[in-house]
Amino acid sequence: MIETGLRLMTGGEAVAEAMRQIDPDVVPVYPITPQTPIIQGFAKFVADGRARAELVNVESEHSAMSAAVGAALAGARTMTATSSQGLALMAEVVYIAAAMRAPIVMALGNRALSGPINIHCDHSDSMLIRDSGVVQLFAENAQEAYDLTVIATRLAEHPDVLLPVLVCQDGFTITHSAEPVTLLDDEAVTEFVGGYSLPHPVLDTARPTTQGPFAMPDYYFELRRSQTEALEAALAVFGELSAEYEELSGRGYGPLEAYRLEGAERAIVALGSSAGTIKDVVDDLRTDDERVGLLKVVSFRPFPAEEVAALLAEVSSVIVLDRADSPGGAAPLHAELAAALYGRGNELTGHVYGLGGRDLHPEDVRRIFAGEAERYVGLRGEPCPV
Amino acid sequence: MSRLKTLVRNEAGVPPLAGGHALCQGCGVPIVVRTVLNTFTQPVVVVNATGCLEVATTRFPATAWNVPWLHVAFENAAAVASGVESAQRALRRRHALPAAEEVAVVVFAGDGGTYDIGLQALSGALERGHRLLFVCYDNEAYMNTGIQRSGATPFGAATTTSPNGEVSFGKAQQRKDMTAIAVAHHVPYAAQATASHWHDLSRKVERASAADGAAFLNVLTDCPVGWGHEPRRSLEVLNAAVDSLFWPLYEVVDGRYRLTYQPEQVLPIEDWLRPQKRFAHLLRPEHADVLDEIQRRVDADWEDLLRKCQGGDST
Amino acid sequence: MPELTTSNALRVGGVVVPGEAERPRTGGWRTGVKPEVDLSKCVNCLLCWLYCPDSAVVLDGTTFTGFDLTYCKGCEICAEVCPVEAVTMVPEETAP
C-alpha cells in the first residue's frame, strides 16, 4: 500500500490532481460552473510544466467532446470535464463517442439543467445522457471522485470496454467542499493506469481505416448492439479493476455499496453525496434498533440490476431517492429499481429531492425512513401524495 | 516533372478516394479531394464533416477511402481535426508516434458544414492556430439533404428552401464572404479556388500545407443536380464562375491579398447564370432588377478585391 | 440482408478497413453511353485522369492505357475535357 498522506482538498482539486497524475496527452476544456476548479487546477499544472498535456481551450463544450473524440481515436489519452448545459450541448457527440468507442474520461460536476438556469447540484445532467452508452460512476465524496477517476482511466481503455467513462461528483457539494483526501503517489498512479493503446489509431497511416461510416438499416442495429455489449461488459471489468485498486490503495469500490443492509427492513437507494447524509441517519436510527440501511449506487450505467435485486432480496421496503425527475414518467433511478425488482415482492416507493441544489437534511431522511415524507421532499406548497 | 505528372506519381495507382462511391455523375467533389490529397507527399489523415462526401463514400461496410478517414458529426469537423492535430503534437513530444514524418490533417466539409453549422468550430480552430488544412467544397447549398439553401447560396438562386415562385425570386440574402471571415482570424493562409482550376488549387494546397498554422481553402465545386446542368458541362460552368468574376481566384498570405488569376476577357454575369437551372428564372424580364443587382454586386466586390490586392504582387 | 453470424463479427466502433468489402459497382449507373479512347490520338495530357470523379482512367506510369468501366457513371467529363477528341462517348447496351 502506497500512501502520500492526507490532504485537505475539494473534489474539484482532487480530480485535477488525479488528472495530473494520470498525465493525459490531450485535454480539451471549456468552462462551466461548477467544474471550473477542475480545468483551472489542471491548467495551472500545465502552465507550471507539471502536466504535459496539450491543453486545448475550445470554443464550446460541443467542440470539447468533438476534439476529445478526435484526439482519443487518433491515439492519445484524452480527458475533459463539464456540467449541466455543457453536457446538454455536447450530448450529440457523447452518443457518437460511445458508438465510435472512444475511451475518454470526463469529470462531470453534476448540476441542474436549465430552465430556470441554476448552477447547483442535481443529477438531471447525468440523466439526460443515460441512454448514450457511456459509463457513469457516481462519487459520494472527494476521495471517491479522486479514486474513481484513476480507476476510470483503466476502465475506459480496457479492450473489452473502450467507452467514455463519466466520473460524476455533485456540483458544489463535492466539487467545492474541502474534505480529507488521501492521494496515491505519482508512481503508483502511473503504474496503475499504464500505457494507452487502441486497436485502430487514426494516426497510424500505415494501416488506414474509415471511422464513423454511414450505416443503413442493414447494419445499424448490429453496430449498436455491439456497443451495448461493451457497456454491459464494463460491470465485471469495473469489479476487477476496483479489486486491483484496493490492493494498491486499501480502498475498495464496486458498482454498489451496501451500507448496513444486513437485516434491514427498510432501505434507501440513492446516488451521489446524499449517501453520506443517509449513512449518518442510518447509524443514528440503528442505535435506536431501527432496521434500516442504504444501498448506494456507484455504477449507474451500466446498472447492476442483478446485484441490486440480490442485495435487496430481504428488504421488504425499498425507498428510491432520485435527484432528477422525469416529468410525465417514472423518475430515472426509480425506473431502474422497478425493473430490477419486478416480481420479487419488495415494496417500492420513490421520492424526488434536491433539484436545483436544494439540500437533503438528516431530518428529511428520517421522515423518508418513517414513511412520512412527501413525494417531492421538502417542496413548499401543497404536498403531493406519495 | 509537370505538376500533373507529380499528382499522378503521388497517387501511385492508389487513389486516396477511389471509384466505387455514390456521388453523382459529374460531381466535382472527388475532383477536389483527389487534387488536394494528391498534392501532398506526406501521409494524410482526412476529417470529414457530414454531407455528400461523407455519406456517399462510406456506406458500411464498404469504403472508397484509402487514407485514414474520420467522421464524427456535421458541425464539428474542425473541432475533431483540432483534437487529431493536438494528439499528434502531444504524441510527437513524447516520441510516441511510429512515423517520423508529420501527418497532415486535412478537413473536408461542404458549405453547410463550413459557413453555417460548422462556423463555430472552424472559427475556434482557426483562432487556436492548429496546423491543419480546412477545405470547404462549396457547392452553395445543402445538397445531400435535397438542395436546401445555405449561407453560401448566391443571391437569387432557387433552392428547395428558397424557391422562386409567385412572390419570390429565390434567395433574398447575399452570400457570406467566408474567405474574408477566415482571413479575419489572422490565419497564415486563406484562398479561393475551384475544382476546375486544378493547377491553381494544387499550388494553393502546397502553400497552405507549408503554413505554420491553420489554412483555409474555399473551393467552388459544381453540383450538376443542385445547380441544374448536364454533368459534362461541370468544368465549363466553373470556368464561367471565374471568368465572370463571380468567384475570383486569390490567396491571402499573412493578411496580404494576391490575385492568382485574372481573366483575359471578363464575361457578363449571364454567362455564369444561364447554364444553370437554379438561376433560369432570373433571366426572365420580371427579374431584370435582380440580375442587375447581381452584376452590380459582383463588380463592386471585384473592385474591393483589387484594392486589397494593391501593394502586393498581382498574378 | 447479408448474413451476420454475431454482432462480434463487426470491428470495434464500426471501423472499416479499405478493400475488405466490395464497393458499389457504379458502372451500372450508365444509361446507354460509355467512354472510349482512340489511343493513337491521345497525347497523355492526363486531364481525363484528373477530372474523372470515379477514377475510371487507367494509367501505366503517366501513360493512359484505357478505361476501367467498373465504376464509370457515364458523366462524359472525360470526353468534354479531352483537348484532342481522343475520348468520345459511344453507345453501350445497358447492362442487364
Structure description:
- The complex is a heterotrimer of chains A (386), B (315) and C (96).
- Chain A is α/β, with parallel strands linked by helices.
- Chain A folds into two domains: 6-249, Rossmann fold; 256-369, Rossmann fold, CATH 3.40.50.
- Helices cover 39% and strands 18% of the residues of chain A.
- In chain A, strands 4-5-7-6-13 form a five-stranded mixed β-sheet, with helices on both faces.
- In chain A, α12 (332-341) links the parallel β14 (317-322) and β15.
- In chain A, α1 crosses α2 and α11 (305-311) crosses α12 (332-341).
- Chain B has 315 residues and is an alpha/beta fold.
- Chain B has a single domain (3-309), classed as Rossmann fold (3-Layer(aba) Sandwich), CATH 3.40.50.
- Chain B is built from twelve helices and ten strands.
- In chain B, strands 2-1-3-4-8-7-9-10 form an eight-stranded mixed β-sheet, sandwiched between helices. A two-stranded antiparallel sheet of chain B has the order 5-6.
- In chain B, α1 (3-11) packs across α2 and α2 packs across α8.
- The two termini of chain B are 23 Å apart.
- The model of chain B has no long low-confidence stretch (mean pLDDT 96).
- Chain C is of the alpha+beta class and 96 residues long.
- Chain C has two helices and four strands, in the order βαββαβ.
- Chain C has helices at 47-51, 77-81, and strands at residues 33-37, 57-60, 63-67, 87-91.
- In chain C, the strands form two sheets. Chain C has a two-stranded antiparallel sheet. In chain C, strands 2-3 form a two-stranded antiparallel ribbon.
- Chain C starts with 32 loop residues before the first strand and ends in a 5-residue tail after the last strand.
- The model of chain C has no long low-confidence stretch (mean pLDDT 92).
- Chains in contact: A-B, A-C, B-C.
- At the A-B interface, β3, α3, α5 and β9 of A face β1, β2, α4 and α6 of B.
Task: Specify the overall morphology of chain A.
Answer: globular
Q: Which strands sit side by side, in order, in the main sheet of chain C?
A: 1-4
Q: Report the CATH topology name of the domain at 33-96 in chain C.
A: Alpha-Beta Plaits
- Greatest interface: A-B, 46 and 46 residues
- Helical run tally of chain A: 13
Q: So what's the oligomer here?
A: heterotrimer
Number of domains of chain A: 2
CATH superfamily of the largest domain in chain A: Thiamin diphosphate (ThDP)-binding fold, Pyr/PP domains
Beta-strand proportion of chain C: 15-25%
CATH fold-level label of the largest domain in chain A? Rossmann fold
Inertia-based shape of chain C: elongated
